[in-house]
Write a structure and sequence with these properties.
about 200 residues, alpha/beta, Nucleotidyltransferase, domain 5, 5-stranded mixed β-sheet, 6 helices, about 35% helix, about 15% strand, RNase_HII, EC 3.1.26.4, manganese
């Protein structure tokens, strides 16, 4: 896995988690890693177990030059759509970096300019560049922790396990109990959406 994409030392990698979920926020992280940062386990968060992600989280946080994490909640997602919410989450995470950013690398193919800083969108960037992989791990671990918290409030949806993704169990619970303030009402929550009385 390559260290950086550009020749700049202050290159921020950014990624989001939770884009395809029916409930909870979309969460983004931005990370700048020092040039001497090395880690053999860091990879795209989807390739790692929850245990490995939780072990890597403090390693990334302590080793990073700086990092930022931001949630965009369902009410805003419904208002501006999930693509715009994902980009806004990444912008907000970048805003939290307490270091100058010279270049941004983004996982995926869609982004909007951030403060005139040059950027590059990289398909599967989280499996190619360390800072994007680190951002994907932070986004996922922070979002998972949030979903486990709200699980306590609404245990019948089992967000502790499904994290808000459209599993069969999650959809059955929506059918049975309806929606909550944490659901994204602009999403197709059930295949037979017309029958769901919102």
């Amino acid at each position: 896995m390559y260290k950086s994409y550009s020749e700049f030392s202050l290159e921020a990698g950014t990624d989001e988690a939770g884009r395809g979920c029916l409930a909870g926020p979309v969460t983004a992280a931005a990370v700048i890693l020092p040039e001497n940062f090395k880690n053999k386990i860091i990879n795209d968060s989807k390739q790692l177990t929850a245990l490995k992600r939780s072990i890597l989280k403090p390693i990334i946080e302590e080793g990073a030059t700086c990092f930022g994490v931001a949630h965009i909640y369902p009410i805003k997602i419904d208002e501006i759509n999930i693509l715009n919410a994902s980009i806004l989450a990444m912008h907000n995470a970048l805003d939290k970096l307490n270091s100058e950013i010279e270049h941004i690398i983004v996982d995926g193919n869609r982004f909007k300019p951030f403060k005139d800083i040059p950027y590059e969108c990289i398909i599967k960037g989280d499996s190619k560049y360390l800072s994007i992989a680190a951002a994907s791990i932070l986004a996922k671990t922070y979002r998972d922790a949030y979903m486990e918290e709200i699980h306590e409030e609404y245990p019948m949806y089992n967000w502790k396990k499904n994290k808000g993704y459209p599993t069969k169990e999650h959809r059955e619970a929506i059918k049975k109990y309806g929606t909550t303030k944490y659901h994204r009402l602009s999403f197709r929550l059930l295949p037979e959406q017309l029958k769901l009385d919102l």
